Model the fold of this input.
Amino acid sequence: MRFGVVPSSVRRDVLAWHGNAGQAWLDGLPKTVWRLQRLWSLRTDGPPYGGGSHSYVVPVRRDSGEQAVLKVIYRDEENAAEPTALQQYAGDGAVHLHEYDRETGAMLLERAVPGNRLKSTRFFGHRTPEAAWRRIGIACGLYRRLWRPVVAVDGFPELPAATEMLDLWRAEYGDPQGDARQSPAAARLDFALELCDRLGNPPELGIGNRDTHLGNIVSAEREPWLVIDPKPYLAERAFDGGFLLFMLQHHGPHSGAELLHAVADGLGVDPERLRAWALLRAIDNLAEAEGERDVAAAAATVDALERA
Done:
């Protein structure tokens, strides 16, 4: 199995975010891929997929000739439990997990064919508001299906808790000398702390997804659409919609109260808890924004969610 070139985005981000540890992961990739292809009897079926930030992902074929995808991740808190979620989804609305390597966190996954991303799929009148609502409906339907209680399975990582995200924001935003107090979001940090308190006692807990967006849904034959690349957290249902609503508001074309209630109804969640999670994601984005244009866009998103 010939080792393909690591996509530039993966190399750049792993090195920027993880330094020497990231370099060690990159240096070990060829050996890891070679070991896994022998372990799972795989052969390369094309070049590595481009894009991404934490994973080397390459199309492969199994001994049977079945198409699959080998995904070797740089494990961190966000993605370490991806195999746990996929194992429990069991292919219901998401790609199947065929194999999992506990040593590295690598996975052998179902290959979704044709694999076109929902966000760029052309529906009839694809630039119209109606087509945008259709995409939103598909996404909400899938993420609603995927939320479910957690069943512990030996050998699979535990899910991090969404409440730990709230604790991190409390510590960051509550520090009067911290970087956040000098960021473009400084005027909104006290409000963000109030939101953290509101969300501190979730009404239920299950497998939530930190990274809900239209780019993580792809077309397939087994089902019309499947979720890929989940970032699972132990979370309430409304947590799923936090990033989805933020992204939809930020990029349009729909916005405001109509968008808020469409997502809340699609996910079956309390719109106020959904809005609170979306606002926290939007304020976090504003705190990290740089450049006049990006800051203005991030601030507009926060304003729109506040008014929704």
In short: The chain has a mean pLDDT of 94. The radius of gyration is 20 Å. The domain at 8-110 is CATH 3.30.200.20 (Phosphorylase Kinase; domain 1). The CA atoms of residues 77 and 288 lie 20 Å apart.
